[in-house]
């Protein structure tokens, strides 16, 4: 059956799919019933561009497993949760609860952190002890240690005073309960420690639900006076009045669980009571509790609340408790909270409170989730829970102006806001991190910011890290983030992520098309405006069949001259791999399956790229067919007029890393040759092969069916590894799409896997004129 490139649309002023969807004056052909309606082009709702002098620049991403003792297995879990820095700003000290130790990192050269090793808590106490927080004071670091060991009814903990120079403990203070965070007064006179005495999530109190409160003993705050020699430091316990907490509207005032503390220059301690949805203010010098107030509730609309494989921003949460985690003082009368939530709440944003009245003066509403969607960092698998889940927060000062830094635990970024006006924060910047950013550590004396991440997945090789940023022009150099975003239509951003394909727009030299894979359904073809900075996704075309939306694992897209597309669809098994021909209206016109003898030799890794060469369609198969020689992948040429396939062999690279494999991710036809994207399965510092190779278009016929395909020689056209490493982030595994636009420039994109087994960052590279970028 022949497939003809016959356009269905006519336009008075423009041609091509871009014009079809976006411009007035387009009409429909007589047989085009059921086609998609004309759609409005999305516009950029946020300005992500800042001059170098006014933004943070990523300097380094240090995987903390590199700092472990040599005897520890490389795949053992190790994290960086909360961090502090020595007074000279040169040594970062972080907690590693998974490894039950603290780590030391030299950042004298912030672009090249050097691991200084670790201190095991087994050397300070017991092998089951876990660090919960750290704070540097003079020549010492205060290490907050949970010694509860799972006995929730009998919580315990201590603070170890460790001399940084020789890592010896000079004093230890019993805290009388299970601790969480610590903060030191600005003048160094005392430290405040939240004694959480956390609940057992598997225990059911009488008459309550599993994991509910009350679960005595209640929590409190310890104030540790720091005057004199460390062996004279003693704690002062601060308890909360149950009646005052009840009057403030707290949920279960007989069982308060302090979570996070922050101290302002006046010596006031702000404390979050997360599970009770409350905030307390303490005079740190006298120990008097000055105020307790509820964090209140918030209703949030136009968010994704259904875990269904699609990003539907039509959900809402109503009168939901904020349940704040981290807290920070903006000034002497305002605090900001990251509203992570616990088992009853979480409002997907952050808030600012007037500490005098306890009133909310500003709330982020759905804006954090919108930022995640616009930058491809929305984690759909958490949509029914707490979405982006803001957890960490810090306040710093830049150029005399207060700045709030808010960390999204699940969407893996830190959002930067100017909070000079506490009632009207101004968004400034997005800072990507590896999974689970929690420790947000400004180093204002050096204009640095250190982000420590608590999630570690050794199997996926996505490791916990410490990321270092520098503010201002002197730290410029790395490409800015984000490099691609989506625009909004009627206040709702186009949802995207998991981009594994690129293709040119035949009607516009400054546009490309891309498509999310199965991580975000139903399937859509997205239009990208390359004249915007960052590149702007401004159109979306649903893929339909018989008038219904469909979800396909789209791994390759090729734009047809008539405004339609050919999609390379990967199947869960070999027979599921198909070429799907789509019209300009998004409707599927035809599906073409693999020959059965080829499909039988494939597992779950099939079609990855598609390209057009006149009347022929080229495809790249990711891994080798089982019947083919080892180390050879297939390139296929399909001829629609004759409905025939022929196959050619492509020699794969190799690495010496256990568990690695090499595969193909994209194919393009350019300047009389095939360009093929080849990559390994490695990321971070392990990454070895991320490259575009040139293969001459064959002059002879290829093999049919399962017959051994003739091998095509290849030459390296572009090593992409230096380009990915230039971001100074965690080198992405899945560099999966590239295209040479009509403007002649080479563009490359990474697949963020929908944040599943990945840090979620999408890197969109503009590598300049292809003639210069390719050998």
Automatic annotation (TrEMBL):
Phytase-like domain sequence ranges: 495-753
Gene3D superfamilies, per database record: YVTN repeat-like/Quinoprotein amine dehydrogenase
Alphabetical list of Pfam families matching this protein: Phytase-like (PF13449)
Signal peptide range in chain numbering: none
Protein name: Phytase-like domain-containing protein
Record organism: Mycolicibacterium gilvum (strain DSM 45189 / LMG 24558 / Spyr1) (Mycobacterium gilvum)
């Amino acid at each position: 059956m022949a497939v003809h490139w016959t356009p269905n649309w006519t336009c008075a002023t423009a041609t091509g799919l871009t014009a079809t969807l976006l411009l007035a004056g387009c009409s429909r052909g007589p047989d085009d019933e059921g086609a998609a309606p004309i759609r409005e082009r999305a516009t950029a709702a946020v300005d992500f561009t800042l001059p170098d002098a006014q933004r943070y620049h990523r300097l380094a991403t240090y995987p903390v497993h590199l700092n472990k003792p040599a005897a520890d297995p490389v795949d053992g879990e190790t994290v960086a949760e909360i961090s502090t820095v020595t007074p000279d700003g040169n040594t970062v000290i972080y907690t590693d609860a998974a490894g039950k130790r603290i780590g030391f990192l030299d950042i004298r050269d912030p672009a090249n952190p050097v691991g200084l090793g670790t201190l095991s808590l087994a050397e300070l106490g017991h092998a089951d002890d876990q660090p919960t927080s750290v704070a540097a004071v003079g020549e010492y670091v205060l290490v907050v240690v949970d010694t509860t060991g799972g006995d929730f009814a009998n919580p315990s903990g201590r603070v170890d005073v460790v001399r940084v120079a020789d890592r010896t403990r000079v004093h230890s203070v019993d805290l009388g309960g299970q601790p969480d965070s610590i903060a030191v007064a600005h003048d160094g006179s005392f430290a405040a420690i939240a004694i959480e005495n956390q609940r057992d999530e598997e225990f059911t109190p009488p008459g309550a639900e599993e994991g509910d409160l009350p679960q005595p003993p209640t929590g409190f705050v310890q104030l540790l006076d720091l005057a004199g020699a460390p062996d004279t430091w003693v704690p002062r316990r601060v308890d909360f009045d149950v009646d005052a907490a009840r009057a403030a509207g707290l949920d279960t005032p007989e069982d308060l669980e302090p979570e996070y503390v922050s101290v302002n220059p006046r010596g006031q301690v702000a404390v979050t009571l997360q599970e009770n949805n409350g905030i307390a203010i303490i005079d740190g010098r006298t120990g008097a509790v000055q105020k307790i107030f509820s964090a209140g509730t918030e209703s949030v609309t136009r968010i994704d609340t259904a875990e269904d494989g699609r990003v539907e921003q039509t959900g809402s949460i109503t009168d939901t408790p904020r349940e704040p985690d981290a807290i920070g003082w903006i000034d002497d009368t305002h605090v900001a909270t990251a509203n992570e939530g616990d088992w009853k709440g979480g409002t997907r944003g952050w808030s600012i409170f007037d500490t005098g009245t306890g009133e909310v003066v500003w709330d982020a509403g759905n804006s954090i989730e919108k930022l995640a969607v616009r930058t491809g960092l929305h984690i759909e698998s958490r949509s029914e829970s707490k979405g982006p889940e803001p957890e960490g927060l810090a306040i710093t000062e830049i150029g005399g102006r207060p700045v709030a830094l808010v960390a999204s635990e699940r969407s893996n970024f830190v959002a930067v806001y100017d909070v000079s006006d506490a009632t009207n924060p101004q968004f400034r910047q997005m800072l990507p991190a590896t999974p689970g950013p929690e420790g947000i550590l400004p180093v204002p004396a050096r204009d640095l910011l250190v982000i420590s991440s608590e999630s570690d997945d050794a199997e996926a090789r996505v490791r916990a890290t410490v990321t270092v940023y520098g503010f201002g022009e002197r730290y410029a150099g790395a490409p800015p983030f984000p490099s691609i975003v989506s625009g909004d239509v009627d206040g709702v951003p186009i949802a995207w992520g998991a981009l594994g394909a690129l293709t040119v727009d035949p009607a516009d030299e400054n546009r490309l098309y891309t498509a999310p894979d199965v991580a975000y359904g139903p399937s859509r073809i997205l239009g990208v405006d390359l004249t915007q900075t960052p590149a702007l996704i401004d159109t979306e075309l649903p893929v339909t069949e018989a008038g219904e939306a469909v979800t396909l694992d789209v791994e390759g897209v090729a734009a047809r001259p008539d405004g339609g597309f050919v999609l390379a669809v990967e199947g869960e098994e070999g027979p599921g791999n198909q070429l799907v021909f789509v019209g300009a209206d998004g409707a599927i016109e035809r599906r073409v399956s693999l020959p059965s003898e080829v499909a039988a030799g494939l597992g779950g890794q099939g079609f990855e790229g598609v390209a057009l060469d006149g009347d022929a369609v080229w495809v790249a198969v990711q891994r080798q067919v089982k019947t083919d020689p080892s180390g050879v992948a297939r390139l296929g040429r399909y001829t629609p007029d004759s409905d025939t396939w022929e196959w050619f062999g492509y020699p794969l690279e190799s690495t010496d890393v256990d568990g690695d494999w090499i595969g193909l991710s994209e194919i393009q036809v350019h300047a009389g040759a095939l360009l093929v994207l080849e990559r390994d399965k490695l990321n971070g510092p392990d990454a070895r092969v991320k490259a575009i190779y040139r293969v001459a278009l064959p002059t002879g016929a290829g093999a049919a069916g399962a017959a051994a395909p003739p091998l095509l020689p290849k030459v390296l056209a572009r090593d992409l590894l230096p380009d990915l490493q230039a971001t100074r982030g965690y080198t992405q595994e899945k560099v999966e799409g590239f295209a040479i636009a009509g403007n002649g420039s080479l563009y490359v994109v990474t697949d963020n896997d929908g944040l599943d087994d990945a840090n979620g960052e999408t890197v969109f590279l503009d590598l300049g004129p292809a003639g210069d970028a390719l050998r």
